[in-house]
Specification:
This protein is an alpha/beta fold. It contains five helices and four strands, in the order E-H-E-H-H-E-H-E-H. Helix content is about 50%, strand content about 20%.
Length: about 120
């Protein structure tokens, strides 16, 4: 088998849901060990702040747990049993960290285009 361990990354967006469905189908076909990583990127609102409130991080942790629960339920509805993990922060750092720790063979993520203003 080519892919023994798959990491599905999920952020609750429509693009993330589509990637989750595609990843679930692939995991089923390959009978792969499946991990779900709920990703909450808070970097867009923390840029430029030197001091951050711990309350905001508690809210982020709660939101990430909600995203994880939603993703695990969606996978369960599709017949996939997955081990869940959460990361709050920079998605690139979090995804690469978990991919290394879990020794995954494949990472499935969604992509959505930002407007020119958002990219700026």
């Amino acid at each position: 088998m080519l892919f023994h361990r798959i990491l599905l990354c999920y952020d609750g967006t429509p693009e993330g849901r589509a990637a989750l469905r595609s990843g679930a189908r692939l995991a089923q076909q390959l009978n792969a060990n499946t991990h779900l990583l709920a990703v909450l990127d808070h970097s867009y609102w923390t840029r430029g702040f030197e001091v951050l409130s711990p309350v905001a991080f508690d809210i982020d942790d709660t939101a990430a747990q909600h995203i994880l629960s939603e993703g695990v339920k969606r996978l369960s509805d599709l017949g996939i049993s997955a081990t869940g993990h959460c990361v709050v922060g920079n998605p690139v750092d979090g995804i690469s960290k978990f991919a290394d720790e879990l020794a995954v063979d494949l990472i499935v993520i969604g992509h959505h285009h930002n407007s020119a203003f958002m990219r700026w």
